[in-house]
Design brief:
alpha+beta; 2 domains
């Protein structure tokens, strides 16, 4: 008897158990990291499951915890085949450094495709606002990919655009109002 064709990486049951999935949540894709941990993608989040018995400790001093990164919080994710690295950059808050996660992954399986699809599905609207010449900013509306949940708004400024400049602030605010009106909010 032939085995059915499997499209994804088999995630061990103990890893799924340690991921502490919510009710109705299931793993859609997964990949083992170079340090023995796992990255798991569900409909709503990217889960970083540390290796069993990992020496890493959490901020509270306990064993390393599973990290949940909602798709709407992922700004970019790039996998480079040459160095087998997946780099995930979270949406940042103004004046703070953006969280960046880098993982060594030999075989991403379907995880990279899932990451791209889920991040794209979280973008509701992206509006370009020109401030000077061709430079400006984007006003971006994001929400959980399943379509429910609150819409969050972020600005992405071009290099050389000062977000504290009153003219830039006014343009950003006008862009936000126009984007909200476009969505009927």
């Amino acid at each position: 008897m032939r085995k059915p064709f499997r499209r994804g990486v088999e995630v061990p049951a103990e890893v799924v158990e340690r991921a502490e999935l919510g009710r109705g949540e299931k793993v859609l894709a997964g990949a083992r990291t170079g340090d023995g941990g796992w990255l798991l993608g569900t409909r709503d989040v990217l889960l970083v499951v540390p290796a069993s018995g990992a020496q890493t400790v959490s901020e509270t001093g306990g064993a390393a915890a599973v990290t949940r990164i909602p798709w709407q919080r992922v700004e970019t994710a790039d996998w480079k085949r040459d160095d087998e690295q997946l780099r995930v950059v979270e949406v940042g808050d103004f004046g703070r450094e953006r969280p960046v996660h880098t993982f060594s992954i030999g075989d991403p399986g379907l995880l990279v495709e899932l990451v791209r699809e889920r991040v794209t599905a979280s973008v509701v609207l992206q509006r370009r606002v020109v401030v000077e010449g061709k430079r400006g900013l984007y006003v971006i509306a994001r929400r959980p990919p399943r379509g429910d949940g609150e819409v969050t708004w972020v600005y992405e400024f071009d290099p050389g655009i000062d977000p504290e400049d009153p003219a830039v602030m006014a343009a950003a605010e006008a862009g936000l109002v126009a984007a909200q009106e476009e969505l009927g909010l």
